[in-house]
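User
New here, help please:
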Amino acid sequence: MAKEEGSHWSNVLKRRIAVLEKDERNEEEKKAEETELFTKYYTEWRSGVETDESYKTIPRFYYKLPAEEEVLLQKLREESRAVFLQRKSRELLDNEELQNLWFLLDKHQVPPVSGDEAMINYEAFLQVGKKAGPKCRNFFTARVYSKLLHNDPYGRISIMQFFNYVMRKVWLHQTRIGLSLYDVAGQGYLRESDLENYILELIPTLPQLDGLEKSFYSFYVCTAVRKFFFFLDPLRTGKIKIQDILACSFLDDLLELRDEELSKESQESNWFSAPSALRVYGQYLNLDKDHNGMLSKEELSRYGTATLTSVFLDRVFQECLTYDGEMDYKTYLDFVLALENRKEPAALQYIFKLLDMENLGYLNVFSLNFFFRAIQEQMKLHGQEPVFFQDVKDEIFDMVKPKDPYKITLQDLVNSCQGDTVVSILIDLNGFWTYENREMLVANDDSSNTVDLDET
């Protein structure tokens, strides 16, 4: 068959060559024919006669948003989105259906029990899927089963792990729908005001926030929202994708406040807890000595251990949003989030921008020396023996190991996993002292642990 097709095309090609060889027209005649054909097709196109309608099979992928003055269209869009979200919500498992699913799983467990875990094999898994109803169909697949399959010698999965997987998926979809209700633009992202409304209406559902006075709600909402935008909106566009909110752990931390018996340690480590929010706001009020609701550079210099260099604080007030040279609470929150999370890429980006005075995109020896001189001056004021910059510079480059031996980029700092140490050395005397005396501090920790062991 292949041989016959080959000979067919060979004959066609030979005939085509023969025709071309017989074409004895001169160049002018050929050009005239080309012009005639072009005129013919162009005239057909201008007159609306379409010869190629393949574009009609391309699905529409762009829908223009209604303009501000098109009130009716905007209202129609909002209502249609609300109906869509309600329909999606009804497709989720409710509490009664989840309870029924658990009973079915428990009824079909396959012995023997693995430790304290009830197990189920694939055959029983499929049987439960048939009985559980159409809403559960997407959970009872080979892909889900294989995800949860670990080291069971009988090829079974844990019933509890599977049920937790279902619960987590249902929660994610519920939360996605809940956040989408605040997506005024309907584009899959939340603006700052949208997220503020979401958290404000969430407060009454969180028992751990019952003690907050209503007069503090606005400050609490500002504190909570700021963390989302600081870490999830690095380009400062003023909006965050709902998908990014769901993917990060911040929403888990916020909803952890539903637990009425949350431990004191968990509350202190949770940025969204009442004690944490009151701590941050209380620090702001304590720094505000003139009680004008704003912080000057002098007032901010007492932040933490009061060992941040004046050069670094100058850069903060040059780069960050201020009002007549003073910082408001929202800007202060960004400052706190950066300094309290120096290991995080978003925090390093914030500090790196301040260190990169000339906006070069990297730190060189000059910029390192510029900031470290302020550390040396502070050491002199405290009666300490100054450290030579050359030694510190070599240590910084050894820690970071940048691609270019003369330049340190933000990516170099992040990749090195030493970015927090480097920036602390350059902006904070206490941070530099901790780095310089790290061996002594470790030795003290070891000796104190030894004492504790001996005493016990």
The chain is about 60% helix and 0% strand. The radius of gyration is 33 Å. Residues 450-456 have pLDDT under 50 and may be disordered. The first strand starts at residue 119 and ends at 120.
